[in-house]
Write a structure and sequence with these properties.
The chain has about 350 residues and is of the alpha+beta class. The chain is built from 11 helices and 13 strands. It folds into 2 domains: about 260 residues; about 80 residues, no CATH class. About 45% of the residues lie in helices and about 15% in strands. The strands form 3 sheets. A 6-stranded mixed sheet has the order 1-10-11-9-7-8, with helices on both faces. It has a 5-stranded antiparallel sheet with strand order 2-3-4-6-5. Strands 12-13 form a two-stranded antiparallel sheet. Helix 3 crosses helix 6, helix 3 packs antiparallel against helix 11 and helix 9 crosses helix 10.
């Protein structure tokens, strides 16, 4: 299986969107035999009597169905989660089960978040180590997508790698968000490439492991770099807020709190559920097996950030670009169509294809 990595978000934000539910306990609704609708003042919840069953509804809007627990349904009109129960005792029972499930989400998130931080620290250390390695080469990225040697050997192959990335990434995005380019060799590591967010300048590093990347076909190299570019596209400072802490973020978090209408937040709400994210954390290969129609590649099941990166790469290059793993289903087709809903991404795909055709033309 091909391996890519978003170092800053190796597996990102279990269910940040669900955290918005956790601080507000679901107190059981009060009832009134004379009224069909009763509003409780403590939890801003309404109960409505429908067909002799109490329908429990949150007044607070949620982002989508993925915010609801397994015991709730999503009301599209009210944009809220609700459940039904027959009487007060039944409401209390269901309410307790919902709170128990939410507690599980919170614990999973805490564990998951700790694992992310540990992994980020490890990979940052790897990047630092490779940057200092005499066998590695470091370039500084200058305006106009130019690169200047900072250390190591300046080899033509490295410039070719950069030319591919520059053909994929728009000049303005590269100039704004990419500060350096690292090429290293590590035959013991099967990682092909990664991007790393750097707090020091709030920009990104692109790193390539030549011992793996250099053995790929031209098509595989292009797919890999489109994948890495996708992380920059969906996790840059215009898509996530790096100044918002993880604890205070009510949505998806990876190198910052996802902006409400960002690509990544919209993608997560549409294609991922809290259960899927929890499953990916424990065993992403099992998730891929459990949801065989949901991912364009097995690696896409790693987490939402890898999913959107694999999906965007397939959208740009076509699913046959990764023919050994590509999975064409109704759901993966919907994921590719997701990008077509954004005029700027449709234009970007055309621009990338044109630039790559010029670059690879004989």
């Amino acid at each position: 299986m091909k391996k890519f990595l978003t170092i800053t978000g190796i597996v990102i934000a279990l269910i940040i969107v669900s955290i918005a539910l956790i601080p507000t306990p679901k107190d059981g609704p009060s009832t009134n035999s004379n009224d069909t609708t009763v509003t409780t003042t403590e939890s801003s919840v309404q109960t409505e009597e429908k067909n002799s069953a109490l329908t429990y509804v949150y007044d607070d809007e949620v982002d989508g169905p993925s915010d609801c627990t397994s015991l709730e349904k999503y009301d599209t009109e009210k944009e809220a989660c609700y459940y039904t129960c027959t009487d007060q005792a039944d409401c209390d029972r269901v309410d307790g089960l919902i709170n128990k499930e939410l507690d599980g989400w919170e614990q999973d998130y805490k564990t998951f978040s700790a694992n992310i931080k540990d992994a980020d620290a490890d990979k940052t250390a790897v990047s630092d180590e490779k940057s200092k390695d005499v066998n590695s080469t470091q370039y500084l990225v200058k305006p106009g997508e130019k690169i200047a040697l900072a250390s190591g050997k300046d080899l033509p192959a490295y410039h070719k790698y950069w030319e591919i990335f520059a053909a994929i990434s728009p000049d303005e995005l590269t100039d704004k968000f990419v500060s350096n380019f690292l090429v290293y060799r590590d035959e013991k590591d099967d990682l092909e490439a990664f991007v790393l967010y750097q707090d020091s300048d709030q920009k990104w590093q692109l790193a390539i492991n030549e011992s793996v990347f250099g053995e790929e076909t031209s098509k595989e190299q292009i797919f890999t770099l489109i994948h890495e570019f996708s992380h920059l596209l969906t996790l840059n400072a215009e898509q996530v807020n790096p100044n918002t802490s993880e604890k205070s973020c009510p949505r998806y978090y990876d190198d910052g709190c996802a902006i409400q209408n960002s690509y990544i937040n919209t993608f997560v709400n549409k294609f991922w559920t809290p259960k899927m994210i929890a499953s990916a954390k424990k065993d992403s290969e099992k998730l891929a097996t459990d949801y065989p129609d949901n991912f364009v590649t097995e690696y896409a099941a790693t987490n939402p950030s890898e999913d959107i990166a694999e999906s965007f790469a397939s959208y740009v290059f076509g699913t046959d670009s990764n023919s050994n793993e590509s999975n064409e289903t109704a759901i993966t087709a919907e994921k590719l169509s997701f990008f077509a809903d954004y005029a700027e991404l449709v234009s970007l795909r055309s621009s990338i294809r044109l630039s790559l055709n010029k670059l690879t033309a004989p």
